[in-house]
Amino acid sequence: MQKSDLVLSPGLSQGLGLALMIGTGLLCLALAYMIKTRLVRNTHDFIISNRRIGLGFGVGSIISVWTWAMAVMMSTAMTYQWGLSGLFWFVVPNGFAVMAVVPLAKILRRRMPAGYTISQFIFSRFEQSKVTSGVVTITMIFGIILEILINLKGTAVVMSTVFSIDWRLATMVTVVVVLTYSYFGGLWTSVMTGTLNTWMITVPAAIVIVAVFGMIDGGATAVFDTVDASKPSNLSIMNADAAAGFGITLAFGLLAATVADQTFWQKVWAIRPNQVARTFLWSGALFYPIPICFGMLGLVALAYGLTPADVGGDIVAVGPYIVSHIGLPLILILAYVLAILAACYSTIDGASSALSSIVAVDIIKRYAPKTSETWLFYITKLSVLIGGIVAAAIVLSGADFTSLVLTTYALKTSILLPLILAIVWPRTNTVGFVGGIVLSILIGMPLRAMYGELAGTLAIVGISGGAVIVAGLLSRRSFDMNNLGVKQAMRLEG
Predict the structure, then answer these.
(1) Residue-range domain boundaries for the chain
(2) Is the pLDDT of residue 410 over 90?
(3) What is the 3-state secondary structure (H, E, C) of the chain?
(4) What CATH superfamily is the domain 3-413?
(5) pLDDT in tens, 419-452
């Protein structure tokens, strides 16, 4: 197995790549227009789907927003960088992070059945503290922008690697395509196109990976034997360097990416109450095969002896490079690209929908409660476009994909324990909540820069959780969860 055997497959023109991107978007646009006509009549429909999402669409939509560029491309990159230890540390926390939402979701759906956003919960939980809710709102918006830009970056990487499309052009096309159809249907569009995209991710993934191994003399056995002969530790899941280098940071970040992300809380309040737990449990379990399949491409890259320089310097391009250079039929290469486009598009769509709910509930209705329904509807939809434009501007700066992911998760980790404690521990107070988040970022991020991912992540977790606990123990006040207010939600629904 020599990397000189890897040659770009013929027929992968820029025009074909652009047609694939635009064609996928047009399909989603047609679906979005149908949804808008039949299901979206006001802001409530746009941001919460009238709380009528069932098990099937719920599972499909959650898997699609969780199977973003990171899942389909970073799983390959981490396997390439760390071997099976990288795949282990990437896959195991991923599904668990989705399932971890269940106990918290059950508490809030019971205590705050007419809620819309996690920031709205914080506003009520801390007795209408605008400081506390403002910190959470800013954190949520920042996280959503980062989610959008990471998936824009993922699309740019795959299209530039497979079709030689300039990554800047790929970024701009993705922004225009996804935000156009997201603008029409809101959460209903995200849910239905996301379910369609889940099928576009899972089925091609399995077929393409089998075909890749079929192109190699000796198949999977030859790949594993070659990797073992080159570096046996790449076939071990017990590599401590992988855990310290990215695994622990990623594990906490993944938990934060579900527990502290409006993309998921929006669905908690949109899914029918009796289906919430089942939806998140099934979503977490059914997610696992996806990164495992894509991760195998990392072992193939190791077997061929690829270096980062061979794929343009960014190791997330390893998967697209293997698929487009190993000699697969054109139809299978296109199926792989469609799977990644589906993953990126659906996550950008879901994040945009989450952003619209934050703008409507936590900004407009909180600070300008007399805004008319007509203006609220237009402002909410406009926020989708603004979020995409901001994210695209950041992507065009040329930031590294892996660094974006790990930095995003490090920042999100700062809110993980304060938010969980706010839900389950009545003595959590404003000083501890805000202080924990702010101090963990101010102290933890510099430590991360100086001493690495592991030290920085543990510092962020320890400081954020410790501040909440200390402040709570020093105070004698407890919050009664039965007092959660839902006046904002009632105004929107009414």
Answers:
(1) 3-413
(2) no
(3) CCHHHCCCCCCCCHHHHHHHHHHHHHHHHHHHHHHHHHHCCCHHHHHHHHHCECHHHHHHHHHHHHCCHHHHHHHHHHHHHHCHHHHHHHHHHHHHHHHCHHHHHHHHHHHCCCCCCHHHHHHHHCCCCHHHHHHHHHHHHHHHHHHHHHHHHHHHHHHHHHHCCCHHHHHHHHHHHHHHHHHHHHHHHHHHHHHHHHHHHHHHHHHHHHHHHHCCCCHHHHHHHHHHHHCHHHHCCCCHHHHHHHHHHHHHHHHHHHHCCHHHHHHHHHECHHHHHHHHHHHHHHHCHHHHHHHHHHHHHHHHCCCHHHHCCCHHHHHHHHHHHCCCCHHHHHHHHHHHHHHHHHHHHHHHHHHHHHHHHHHHHHHCCCCCHHHHHHHHHHHHHHHHHHHHHHHCCCCCHHHHHHHHHHHHHHHHHHHHHHHHCCCCCHHHHHHHHHHHHHHHHHHHHHHCHHHHHHHHHHHHHHHHHHHHHHCCCCCCHHHCCCHHHHHHHC
(4) Sodium/glucose cotransporter (1.20.1730.10)
(5) 999 999 999 999 999 999 999 989 988 888 888 7
Check: CB of residue 20 under 8 Å from CB of residue 339: no
Q: Residues for the chain: how many in total?
A: 494
Highest mean pLDDT among 143-147, 337-341, 422-426, 451-455: 422-426
Residue 271's beta-bridge partner residues?
A: 53
Cβ(35)–Cβ(192) below 8 Å: yes
Confidence of residue 57 (pLDDT cuts 50, 70, 90): confident
| Residue that wins the pLDDT comparison between 115 and 281 | 281
* pLDDT 10s digits, 239-292: 888 877 777 877 887 888 888 888 888 888 889 988 999 999 999 998 898 889
pLDDT band at 351 (very low <50, low <70, confident <90, very high): confident
Chain segment 191-246, per-residue pLDDT in tens: 776 777 777 788 888 899 999 999 998 888 999 999 999 888 888 888 888 877 77
The torsion region of residue 270 among left (phi > 0), alpha (psi -120 to 50) and beta comes to alpha
